[in-house]
Design brief:
- With 162 residues, the protein is of the alpha/beta class.
- The protein has five helices and seven strands; from the N terminus they run E-H-E-H-E-E-H-H-E-E-E-H.
- It has a single domain, classed as P-loop containing nucleotide triphosphate hydrolases (Rossmann fold, 3-Layer(aba) Sandwich).
- A seven-stranded mixed beta sheet has the order 1-7-6-2-5-4-3, with helices on one face.
- It binds adenosine-5'-triphosphate (ATP) and magnesium ion (MG).
- The site of magnesium ion has 5 residues, from helix 2.
Length: 162
């Protein structure tokens, strides 16, 4: 496993890290996003959706739990993106009700999961982990850590971090 660490100084920078990271993604990938309330998980997701030319407004799905977007990948093929926010989920039964399992095993889609710690054992083992942490010295600073047990994130992100 290789871990990459990036330093974001603004909402825009987090957005553009998400956009660049998306180049690495392939259909079927699961991205588990960790970080406190307001860390920037949704902003990172917006950057990913931007890369895939999603035209819908990407919002926090807190009230709907799961949003489905359609985008275009680098081969000009349509790609489905699921954006899931499990913040309000409290049990395995609720996960079942929203169709979490089916969503995770959808081979043709990219699955972005905020508050994935709530999925427990139902989160498939192989996934990208994106952790966004507040940096102590400044309200707008974040440390973004990305890892995957088998894959390596696109190196171009590292060049733009500081
Ligand atoms: N470096 C930064 N990266 C991302 N967001 C930042 C940064 N600096 C400040 N912000 C602000 O932090 C907030 C991040 O909001 P966002 O909805 O992306 O968080 P979240 O992690 O998805 O929260 P939630 O758990 O509530 O879904 C925004 O208001 C944004 O303007
Ligand atoms: Mg969010």
């Amino acid at each position: 496993m290789e871990t990459d660490c990036y330093h974001s100084h603004s909402e825009d920078e987090t957005h553009s890290f998400g956009r660049q990271f998306a180049e690495t993604l392939a259909k079927g990938d699961i991205i588990a996003l960790y970080g406190d309330l307001g860390a920037g998980k949704t902003e990172f997701v917006k950057g990913i959706c931007d890369y895939f030319q999603v035209e819908d407004i990407v919002s926090s799905p807190t009230f709907t739990i799961m949003n489905q977007y359609f985008g275009t990948d680098s081969d000009d093929e349509e790609i489905t993106i699921y954006h899931v926010d499990l913040y309000r989920i409290d049990s395995a039964k609720e996960l079942e009700e929203i169709g979490f399992d089916d969503c995770m095993f959808s081979e043709n889609a990219i699955k972005l999961v905020e508050w994935s710690e709530k999925a427990g054992e139902m989160l498939p083992k192989i996934h990208w982990t994106v952790d966004i942490a507040f940096a102590s010295d400044n309200d707008n600073e974040r440390i973004i850590t990305i890892s995957h047990p088998e894959k390596i994130a696109n190196g171009t992100i590292a060049e733009s971090s500081s």
